[in-house]
Each structure stands twice: as C-alpha cells, then as structure tokens.
Amino acid sequence: MANKLKVTLVKSTIGCKKDQIATVEALGLRKLHMCVEKPDNPQVRGMIFKVSHLVKVEEA
Q1: Is 4-59 a domain of CATH 3.90.180.10?
Q2: Hey, how many other C-beta atoms are within 10 angstroms of the C-beta on 47?
Q3: 5-33 as b/e, with b when 16 or more CB fall inside 10 Å?
Q4: What is the pLDDT of residues 13-58, one digit of tens each?
Q5: Backbone torsions φ then ψ of 6, nearest 5 degrees
Q6: pTM for this structure?
Q7: Residue 23 in contact with residue 13, Cβ under 8 Å?
Q8: Helical H runs in the chain?
Q9: Which helix (H) or strand (E) holds 23?
Q10: 10: DSSP letter
Q11: Domain boundaries, the chain
C-alpha cells in the first residue's frame, strides 16, 4: 500500500450538503480537476469515503 494518495475533484460541490462541501475544502480541493497528495491514513480515508461520489483516488 502506498504512503500517499492522489485525490482529484471530478464533480462540482454545487448542491451538496454543507458537511460534504466542508470535507472537500478540508482535503484542500478548491477547483474542479485539482489534485492534492494526502497521507494514507484512516482520517483521510474517512474523508474520502464521505465524498467518494465527488472525487477520484489513486495511489501516488
């Protein structure tokens, strides 16, 4: 398993619940198709699970 995850925002947060929008912002994603690298830990995995319909995840 990789130590880092590459998270990409592939769908807009318009119309999403406030907690989902806050989760996307907490991941550091601001615009569509923006990528960030996050450590692979349970906290980040939980955030990704919450907004899994908005993001694409790859091992970095």
Answers
A1: no
A2: 18
A3: bebebeeebeebeeeeeebbeebebeeee
A4: 999 999 999 999 999 999 999 999 999 999 999 999 999 999 999 9
A5: -100, 115
A6: 0.91
A7: no
A8: 18-26, 42-50
A9: helix 18-26
A10: -
A11: 4-59
